[in-house]
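so my prof wants the structure for this chain in the tokens format not the other one, which i didnt know existed until like an hour ago. anyway here's the sequence
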Amino acid sequence: MCAYCPVFFCLERMGCTVEDLVKNARQINQQLARYGVKFGIYKDGEFQERLFPFDAIPRVIQAEEWEKLEKGLSQRVRALNLFLKDIYGQKRIIADGVVPEDFVYRSPGYIPQCEGITPAGGIYSHISGIDLVKGKDGVWYVLEDNLRIPSGASYPLIARTLCRRCSPETFRHNAVVDNRGYGALLRRTMDSVNTGGINVVFTPGRYNAAYFEHSYLAEKSGAALAESGDLYVRDSVLYYRSTKGDQRVGAIYRRVSDDYMDPLAFEPTSLIGIPNLMGVYRAGNVAVLNAFGNGVADDKGIYYFVPKMVRYYLDEEPILSNAPTYLPFYEEDMRYVMEHLDTLVVKDVAEAGGYGVVFGSKLEKEKLESLRQAVIREPRRFIAQEVVDFQDLPIMDEGEQVERKADLRAFVLSGAEETVVWPSGLTRFSRNPDSFIVNSSQGGGFKDTWILSR
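here's what i got, hopefully its the right format
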């Protein structure tokens, strides 16, 4: 039995065994496949859909531990929203020398067209996905801030629903905080910034990797699910073509990258965008969740400065810790990275989904030298971090209980009046015993996250 996983104690008290969990997992995965709960990836130029494997042994977080996480996550997202408002406005944090000017304007996520635009309610990141790991020292470390189009909330949401059906006794005998309110929370967030009209979840279509989630969250939040052909702009107002006639849109939860949202403002060849949407947004006639230009704040290089943002904007000490991070952009950090490259993990700031992550300890001498030269040539392109020895969690693998690395994506929803941390989250785990990479695109699985109530 895993010493730090109290779920086994709870299950044993109620007479459940690991065999029960395995039985439930088979049933749940069958239902997930039947309902089309999959993710998609492009590999070798072809689109492939895959089942996102579910493991029935939940991650358990005690109430006291969650209380600290909740405060830290809320604090972090509030600071990041203030940073975005500042960067596209007065730029005080640059003028005061807290964040270097070059670091902002050379970020791939910085969008000059967003200068001077304050979104409805003054909120930029409405749905934030913060990735954390728990070190073996018991400390939670933030690895990434995802403020553009973070995905994953639907998976624990539907998995919990199926778990309840398969084993209702489990939830009668354990004080697990109910996570079924996510749809209502999402709707409340959209309503709080809605400029007058209906709420829409905007999807690029069924060939998107997270299409299941788009349709599922639209249903749960009561929003219309729309593709580009369903939406149009007239007189600086966004409209949705429905069976009831054309309806004005007041809030659009977009699941399309910035570049493809408006072919007249960004990528002109985009066939999945909405022409003139940027004009509607600039006029304040629609709320876009998440706002355009958020990539400047979840740039892996900007991540280094988030604790400084907390102190600068909130005058508070950060509750959550960053992983120890070095910026080759700075001479002192470059020197350290060069001396310790074989023990660090190097990340390309423009990559996502587990790509562009290189462990120096796993490289042969020639490839390590190639990485060294790449960092020297483009210091702004990379960050380096100490390898956090984070906890393994128990999973079932072909009938046997084994331990694998796992992270947690927490979801923080920010409306015009409140910032709320969803009492659940997406726990992803590596299926490779030698890998620290847990992303679904890298073959990982997921499990439910139980927040225990007091």
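also thought this was worth mentioning. Confidence is low (pLDDT under 50) at residues 1-11, 13-18.
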